[in-house]
Recover the amino acids of this structure.
């Protein structure tokens, strides 16, 4: 693959823009990690985001970089990637994140980034520039990740209900207030491990295209550290507008339900990250919360709210792709 010419200033600008997206990813998705533990009253909001940000950083020592490899080399043809494509992808993702954050819609930062890549790549080189196998896996997990979260969340809820059927509710509540600290930490670990790697993959793609990294080399350490740091700082300033939707509007959660939802969501993220599949933490925890609610009774879930969230998921990739295509065109004129 022949390297494109990109000035150092343009490269620094695009890396900075990618880290801004990573910060916004943490900011936007903080609600996913803390909503359950805050809404059940186990932790105060500021304590919860501090814990989540810390666990986002710990993920650097736990997970291999399979997701970064998928995003960097397995979504669009590396031969068509240039600074305009990366610029368009980032603007598309950031633009959609701002819109959904403003209206309190828990959409997927991950799929906004993938949609941005798809839109910018198609705008430059058409549909043949997409790597079909990688795109198929990502699209398939739009359905699989919330479904797996739903199944694991509901199974956990049924198991816990069966195990503690003879226990006093007050004792159960006390125990699961403690256990929810563990489950929330595990979910935050999975969140950092999957989400930070998406931005790493995009920066890696840019470095390879511009000749600053070898196509068969390793991801530079500074990229890994800066991406984990950016998503952690974003989490510290978390998106409070979305917390209420995730934590209480879908279904009313108690500590035992919060534990089951977070554990089911964490297991889903661990599986996806091990397989190198960039999934939506928003989709995952929403599916787990719905699973917990429906395991108690179907009427416990506010299906209208859940339905509105699903519509946001459906629109994310095409909407961010459209914004990215426009940004790519503007980038070729002015960047």
């Amino acid at each position: 693959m022949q390297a494109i010419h990109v000035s150092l200033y343009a490269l620094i600008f695009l890396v900075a823009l990618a880290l801004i997206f990573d910060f916004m990813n943490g900011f936007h998705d903080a609600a996913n990690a803390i909503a359950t533990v805050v809404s059940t009253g186990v932790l105060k909001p500021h304590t919860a985001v501090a814990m989540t940000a810390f666990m986002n950083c710990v993920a650097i020592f736990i997970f291999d970089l399979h997701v970064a490899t998928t995003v960097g080399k397995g979504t669009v043809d590396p031969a068509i990637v240039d600074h305009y494509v990366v610029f368009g992808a980032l603007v598309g993702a950031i633009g959609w994140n701002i819109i959904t954050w403003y209206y309190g819609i828990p959409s997927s930062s991950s799929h906004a980034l993938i949609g941005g890549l798809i839109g910018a790549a198609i705008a430059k080189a058409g549909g043949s520039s997409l790597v079909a196998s990688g795109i198929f896996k990502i699209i398939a997990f739009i359905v699989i990740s919330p479904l797996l979260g739903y199944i694991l969340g509901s199974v956990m809820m049924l198991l816990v209900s069966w195990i503690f059927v003879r226990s006093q509710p007050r004792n159960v509540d006390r125990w699961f207030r403690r256990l929810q600290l563990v489950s929330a930490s595990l979910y935050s670990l999975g969140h950092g491990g999957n989400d930070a790697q998406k931005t790493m993959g995009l920066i890696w793609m840019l470095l390879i295209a511009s000749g600053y990294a070898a196509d068969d080399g390793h991801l530079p350490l500074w990229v890994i550290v800066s991406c984990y740091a950016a998503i952690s700082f974003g989490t510290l300033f978390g998106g409070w507008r979305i917390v209420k939707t995730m934590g209480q509007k879908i279904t009313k959660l108690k500590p035992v339900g919060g534990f089951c939802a977070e554990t089911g969501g964490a297991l889903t993220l661990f599986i996806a990250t091990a397989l190198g599949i960039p999934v939506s933490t928003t989709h995952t925890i929403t599916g787990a919360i719905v699973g917990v609610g429906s395991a108690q009774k179907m009427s416990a879930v506010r299906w209208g709210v859940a339905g509105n969230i699903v519509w946001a998921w459906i629109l994310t990739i095409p909407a961010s792709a459209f914004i990215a295509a426009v940004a790519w065109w503007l980038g070729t004129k002015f960047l």
